[in-house]
Design a protein that fits this description.
Helix content is about 10%, strand content about 45%. It is mainly beta and about 450 residues long. The strands form 2 sheets. It has a 22-stranded parallel beta sheet that branches. A 6-stranded parallel beta sheet has the order 17-19-21-23-25-27, with no helix packed on it. Strand 1, helix 2 and strand 2 form a beta-alpha-beta unit. The chain is globular. The two termini are about 40 Å apart.
């Protein structure tokens, strides 16, 4: 109902549109001067549309518009951005705008905005290659996200193509009432493989892991929402990181927890999962609950189903009422189903680094992060390279009410026969193999 109301409100105002070329945008010019002018033109167009009674659609027309980070768009309501052309991030890394802490600014940033819509058949292209390479070389510590939205409500994102972000593609923090559908997120994984392999961060003839798995995360996540009332559907994601990662919240402006998220009818190629987390403990209780992933197809994923905690010595965390249903998965490269501590270390060195568990047993679980009421049902996985999965919880705070129903995983049994399973309580119905600790 809210989305219908949003649509009516937007349509009622869409009498005319504001073209960014009217504010000095330049097509087909990759110079620093053009990239600066285009970022300023988009910002000015938004300000104009926000104040205008009639012209409430900002248009990026057909053409190639190179740009630096657009200045943050704040407190804007009832504006549509239609992208018909290609918005291309400048690859001049040394000239990329940064904040007072020397952090790279996002390609797009929206703060405290309501009733926005992003649409069109166009592309946002991040030109991430050079950023990824310099990150691997440890030359740079900060990269821009593609679209960052903080404390925004009642938003539709549809029909667009998001390619090769330097870091996360859609980072959506403390949000309310989002619908995201019919978008494509695509990372040139072949380029990433070449970069990682050249610097020894891609497994090849590895004694412990299958070939082709990144051992260094480039953090090119697809969609990372935190907040409430989020519906994601009919999306196509190809990357070497989390496809959709539902993040925790605590004590924010609009939300105290992340809840009521539905992800459905989508496809993932490669990717590191339809993911919960990671969730570290926090003094205000980091929480993710009431999340459903359904009707998802994975093609050659690195991971498919991924629920991950993170280390921390203060406070607590909660992962509750999570459902994965009607999932198909072909030829996972690593674990088909994983619930436990985050595996990879981050570029800054944070994280437990459980990459080769169980062969390297140094992978502690976190008793401060509770996991309960988790349902895996109607899941079919074919041709695994490894054992079917890992389910690891803490002895002093076991996972409870975990349900396996009609879950069938076929493939190899290495490095263990069946699931690696510790401190999980629940029930198993018509599933093979059976997690023996349940």
């Amino acid at each position: 109902v809210m989305m219908v109301v949003l649509g009516l409100l937007l349509l009622a105002n869409l009498v005319n549109s504001v073209d960014i070329t009217a504010f000095g945008a330049i097509s087909g010019d990759s110079s620093n001067a053009a990239a600066t002018a285009n970022a300023k033109a988009l910002y000015s167009a938004y300000q104009n549309a926000s104040k205008n009674v009639h012209d409430k659609t900002v248009v990026i027309p057909v053409g190639d518009f190179y740009a630096f980070a657009t200045p943050a768009i704040v407190n804007v309501s009832n504006v549509v951005l239609r992208i018909d052309g290609r918005w291309i991030a400048s690859n001049n890394i040394t000239a990329w705008p940064r904040d007072e802490k020397n952090r790279s600014l996002p390609i797009f940033e929206f703060d405290y905005c309501d009733y926005l819509q992003f649409e069109g058949r166009g592309y946002v292209i991040g030109q991430g290659y050079d950023w990824w390479w310099l990150t691997i070389l440890n030359v740079i510590k900060s990269r821009p996200h593609m679209l960052t939205m903080n404390q925004c409500r009642h938003v539709i994102i549809k029909d667009l193509h998001f390619h090769d972000s330097p870091q996360f593609h859609l980072r959506l923090h403390d949000i309310v009432n989002y619908t995201i559908h019919s978008i494509e997120i695509k990372v040139n994984v072949e380029q990433q493989q070449q970069l990682l392999a050249a610097h020894g961060h891609l497994t090849s003839n590895h004694p412990l892991l299958p070939d082709g798995i990144p051992t260094f995360p480039l953090n090119t996540d697809g969609i990372d929402p935190s907040g409430r009332d989020v519906h994601i559907y009919n999306v196509s994601i190809q990357n070497f990181d989390d496809a959709v990662a539902v993040k925790p919240l605590n004590n924010e402006v609009y939300n105290n927890i992340t809840q009521n998220v539905l992800v459905e009818n989508s496809t993932v190629r490669f990717g590191v999962g339809m993911t919960i987390g990671s969730v570290p403990p926090h003094i205000d209780v980091n929480t993710v609950r009431d999340v459903v992933f359904r009707n998802i197809h994975f093609d050659t994923p690195i991971k498919g189903i991924y629920i991950k905690s993170n280390p921390g010595d203060e406070g607590s965390g909660l992962i509750q009422n999570i459902t994965y249903t009607n999932i198909t998965m072909n030829s996972p490269l690593w674990w088909a189903i994983y619930m436990g501590p985050q595996q990879q270390k981050q570029p800054n060195g944070n994280g437990p680094g459980c990459m080769t568990y169980p062969l390297n047993p140094n992978c502690p679980t976190n008793p401060r992060v509770a996991m309960r009421d988790i349902v895996f049902e109607h899941i079919t996985v074919n041709n695994t390279l490894l054992s079917p999965g890992i389910l690891r919880c803490n002895a002093s705070n076991p996972c409870t009410n975990v349900v396996f129903r009609d879950v069938h995983v076929a493939g190899h049994d290495w490095p263990a026969t069946g699931y690696i399973c510790e401190h999980v309580q629940g029930e198993v119905v018509d599933s093979s193999p059976v997690p023996d600790c349940m």
